């Protein structure tokens, strides 16, 4: 059971990191557009 819980937590972290990277990419694109 503990292994399962750790796996869930790992999945949550991966999901969060993916979301964060997507958000940061959008922000970067937005900023680059604003500068022009």
List keywords for this structure.
36 residues; mainly alpha; 1 helix; rod-shaped
* Unreliably modeled segments: none
| Biggest sheet character | none
Number of helices: 1
Number of strand elements: 0
Query: Which structural class matches the secondary elements?
Result: mainly alpha
Give the DSSP E fraction (strand runs of 2 or more residues).
under 5%
Integer-rounded radius of gyration = 16 Å
Question: Secondary structure elements and their pairing?
Answer:
Layout: H1 2-35
Structural summary, described in words:
With 36 residues, the protein is mostly helical. The protein is built from one helix and no strands. 0% of the residues are buried.
Offer a quick outline of the entry.
Helix content is 94%, strand content 0%.
């Amino acid at each position: 059971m503990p292994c399962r819980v750790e796996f869930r937590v790992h999945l949550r972290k991966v999901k969060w990191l993916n979301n964060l990277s997507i958000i940061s990419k959008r922000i970067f694109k937005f900023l680059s557009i604003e500068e022009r």
